Amino acid sequence: MLDRREELTPMLAQYVEVAERYDDAVVLFRVGDFYKAFCEAADEVARVCELTRIEREDSTGTYTACGIPVDNAPKYLKRLLDAEYRVAVADQVEDPEEASGLVERAVTQVLTPGTVVEEELLAEGSNTYVACVATADGGSDDSAAEAGGDGARDGPTYGVAHVDVSTGECAVTAGDAAAVDEELARIDPAELLGGPGVDPGVVDGADCMVTERDAGKFAPDAAGAVLDRYADPDRFDAAERVAAGALLSYAEYTQGDDGPLEYVRRVRRYDPRRSLRLDATALRGLELFENHVGSGRTLFDTLDETRSALGRRRLRAWLRRPLVDREAIEARHDAVAAFAERTLVREDVREALSAAYDLERLAGRVSRGRANARDLRSLHDTLAAVPAVREALAGVDALADVRADLDPLDDLRELIDAAVAEDPPQEITDGGVIRAGYDDELDEIRTTAREGREWIAELEERERERTGIDTLEVGYTQVHGYYIEVTNGQLDKVPDDYTRRQTLKNSERFYTPELKRREDEILGADERADALEYELFVDLREGVAVESDRIGALADAVARVDALAALATAAVERDYVRPEVGADVDEIRLKRSRHPVVEETAAEFVPNDAALPRGTVALITGPNMSGKSTYMRQVALAVVLAQAGSFVPADAARLPVVDRVFTRVGASDDIAGGESTFMREMRELTDVLHDATADSLVVLDEVGRGTSTTDGRAIARAAVEFLHDETGATTLFATHYHGLTDLADEYDRVVNRHFAAAERDGEVTFLHRVREGAASSSYGVEVAELAGVPDPVVARAHDLVAADREGGGGDGAESPPDPAGTDDGEAAGGDGQRTLAEVATNGHDRGDGERDGDKDAGPPAVRDDAVADLLADLRDLPLAETTPLEALNRLHDLQRRAAEAGDGDRDDTDDDATLDGGRP
């Protein structure tokens, strides 16, 4: 029907014209109190928003329509955005009462998942980014040919830019396809623009809405001209200029602006290598922001003690991009320590920040001309909280820099307070926005209106006395204005100066010349006051917008203070320790380390130590469910937390500065992408082996378990050898291929660690304690039994395991020790943990370091090798050179080792029991 343009009604013709200009979006057309969609768009909107479609019929035929109530629009807009629709909002840009004929409408905003600015559609405390990937020449034929291929590491250089349209934050960098993929994982955009010539694999791999733009927007000259409105284009590489310019052009388009977005104060160029790099796999594996099962606590949830949306976003940013500069790390630790050591200062600051609104988004709304009077009052209230924060920080040297940046903007705060009413209405056109005393002309107009109303308020009593009509009433309607109402029974008393205004069933309404004059004065004054208030407010808002740079600088300082105070609060409440990250630290050493998230939810958490000189490959064996994955993650999280500026969950910590953290933890597949679990595992391993350096931390869990035992064991062994010989990265490598543990005898930087377990009457108890040496069993059958596998299956599995051990066969993962070293099993007697046979013969661990078995059982088994080592150390102890404190520590160590030699267990004290560290 809409093809017959000449037959359309004026409003439908107007709708079609707008829809053709915004053919990539669903157009919502303001009609009275509704946003309307028509025809095919109505079908889509009704389906997504679960609205009723209406069949309309006029001279042009029958068509579909549906409407969204303006007052409840955010609810439905969110549904459309979540379904990855673009929505063009066409508002009435002309007062219907003043329009002659059809009301003029125009698109005032294009809503997309990555460019929303409405508070109701944004997640508080989180950024909403739209990103752009582009080539240096904007997708010429040469660029397209160069960018072809599979997105390998040695491909073309792309520019990648991102902007948060609600706050004005904008940044750009450049890199190859692999680097861009990593950056997009960190940025986590809600929407992505892919320029022409960009490898489709780079764009398609993003987990967000992908938007196409006209190729001309990516032309170097066009993109450079847009960027020039925000920054000097010569500061950027060619690909960065195209990406940033095309992105900002799109941001302007979505906001309905003809010029630059004034609140985008600067476009920051950054190098990802200047922060600890965490790719998508690491972010997912360490559960920094998203829990594996889609619910439950994350690291961010655990640390989030912020009091403002500004601080919450800053804390997220610090965790996404931890520092690599030692001085910057230590400066942040100094600031956190200052807050941790001063409880009153910390609590005063947090209480003051509780009154802070989101300055960045407020400044954005002000600059876009969309802030109302309540927004300005929120800005005022936030500025009013700053002096209390400054006062609390006075005299704290470690916080002097951030205190200096807390400009209270007294002039701006006083201006807003003088101009805006304390409790203004929501709409700036409703009047009552400007405070009395701010503008003389407005006060005079208001005085006229007020005096007129006072005269009318007294009119009823005066007229009753003058006319003798005791039922006379004075009232007002918006249609007829002010009136004097007299019932029919007393119409004979109406004086001659009354003029009839309206006849009702039981009464008549009148006015007098004086009442009419006063009415004109009041209504004229109200109209003039409302118009003047609007003008005054717009001028005020524009004046505040001029100060957007100062507001932005203050917002940055408030965000830093809030994030620092939050980290200090977490440290104090959760017993975290300040890590040592000095220039001489060349090892990961943690005493009684804990997993920051698991310890919050577990009924009881067993701390563990870690001692890993740089370049060490630690092979970690032990039972399923014993805590291997948790242990590796908590070591990696300690590194991430320390470099983000946080204290860490441990009794003491010495940590090097690493450049990247790699993880391959857990099993997952990509069915849609045609990748099996094993293929995805190998892709993740590929990234580690290609990109890890001697300054990296690598966490690998069960490499090679997705294929045959022979192939998997070979891949795992080769990976360990490569990490040791070629990469030199500090590595935690958990495996059930026990045969790999003999690598500790062949390579000087390979060490064995295992998680202890005890068995009593066929029941396994996991001690969750890491020990030196290799494990003797994974207790897989016992874990299957705990999981509820039927008894016949468990019994049969036990028989098969026993037969396998007796025959010396198997896959090498659970093989018995092979003294000759010819089998792929354990080295004889080298793991420091008893076999199941020894446990059955000599009693069972209770899990607390003591023995619990039959009364007739023999004495505990004593490990001859351990006793020999113990006696040798005791014999060689240099008493003359040992201080009393050192002697006590050595005696404690000898006692522990003696107990360990007798009962196969040890307490949870590290060899380096004297390691100490600062505590909040």
Automatic annotation (TrEMBL):
<dbReference type="GO" id="GO:0005524">
    <property type="term" value="F:ATP binding"/>
</dbReference>
<feature type="binding site">
    <location>
        <begin position="622"/>
        <end position="629"/>
    </location>
    <ligand>
        <name>ATP</name>
    </ligand>
</feature>
<dbReference type="Pfam" id="PF01624">
    <property type="entry name" value="MutS_I"/>
</dbReference>
<dbReference type="InterPro" id="IPR000432">
    <property type="entry name" value="DNA_mismatch_repair_MutS_C"/>
</dbReference>
<comment type="similarity">
    <text>Belongs to the DNA mismatch repair MutS family.</text>
</comment>
<feature type="region of interest" description="Disordered">
    <location>
        <begin position="804"/>
        <end position="864"/>
    </location>
</feature>
<dbReference type="GO" id="GO:0006298">
    <property type="term" value="P:mismatch repair"/>
</dbReference>
<dbReference type="InterPro" id="IPR036187">
    <property type="entry name" value="DNA_mismatch_repair_MutS_sf"/>
</dbReference>
<dbReference type="InterPro" id="IPR007861">
    <property type="entry name" value="DNA_mismatch_repair_MutS_clamp"/>
</dbReference>
<dbReference type="Pfam" id="PF05190">
    <property type="entry name" value="MutS_IV"/>
</dbReference>
<feature type="domain" description="DNA mismatch repair proteins mutS family">
    <location>
        <begin position="696"/>
        <end position="712"/>
    </location>
</feature>
<comment type="function">
    <text>This protein is involved in the repair of mismatches in DNA. It is possible that it carries out the mismatch recognition step. This protein has a weak ATPase activity.</text>
</comment>
<keyword id="KW-0547">Nucleotide-binding</keyword>
<keyword id="KW-0227">DNA damage</keyword>
<dbReference type="GO" id="GO:0030983">
    <property type="term" value="F:mismatched DNA binding"/>
</dbReference>
<protein>
    <recommendedName>
        <fullName>DNA mismatch repair protein MutS</fullName>
    </recommendedName>
</protein>
<dbReference type="GO" id="GO:0140664">
    <property type="term" value="F:ATP-dependent DNA damage sensor activity"/>
</dbReference>
<dbReference type="InterPro" id="IPR007696">
    <property type="entry name" value="DNA_mismatch_repair_MutS_core"/>
</dbReference>
<dbReference type="Pfam" id="PF00488">
    <property type="entry name" value="MutS_V"/>
</dbReference>
<dbReference type="InterPro" id="IPR007860">
    <property type="entry name" value="DNA_mmatch_repair_MutS_con_dom"/>
</dbReference>
<keyword id="KW-0234">DNA repair</keyword>
<dbReference type="InterPro" id="IPR016151">
    <property type="entry name" value="DNA_mismatch_repair_MutS_N"/>
</dbReference>
<dbReference type="InterPro" id="IPR027417">
    <property type="entry name" value="P-loop_NTPase"/>
</dbReference>
<dbReference type="InterPro" id="IPR036678">
    <property type="entry name" value="MutS_con_dom_sf"/>
</dbReference>
<keyword id="KW-0067">ATP-binding</keyword>
<feature type="compositionally biased region" description="Acidic residues">
    <location>
        <begin position="905"/>
        <end position="914"/>
    </location>
</feature>
<dbReference type="GO" id="GO:0003684">
    <property type="term" value="F:damaged DNA binding"/>
</dbReference>
<dbReference type="InterPro" id="IPR007695">
    <property type="entry name" value="DNA_mismatch_repair_MutS-lik_N"/>
</dbReference>
<dbReference type="InterPro" id="IPR017261">
    <property type="entry name" value="DNA_mismatch_repair_MutS/MSH"/>
</dbReference>
<dbReference type="Pfam" id="PF05188">
    <property type="entry name" value="MutS_II"/>
</dbReference>
<dbReference type="Pfam" id="PF05192">
    <property type="entry name" value="MutS_III"/>
</dbReference>
<keyword id="KW-0238">DNA-binding</keyword>
<feature type="compositionally biased region" description="Basic and acidic residues">
    <location>
        <begin position="843"/>
        <end position="864"/>
    </location>
</feature>
<dbReference type="InterPro" id="IPR045076">
    <property type="entry name" value="MutS"/>
</dbReference>
<dbReference type="InterPro" id="IPR005748">
    <property type="entry name" value="DNA_mismatch_repair_MutS"/>
</dbReference>
<feature type="region of interest" description="Disordered">
    <location>
        <begin position="896"/>
        <end position="920"/>
    </location>
</feature>
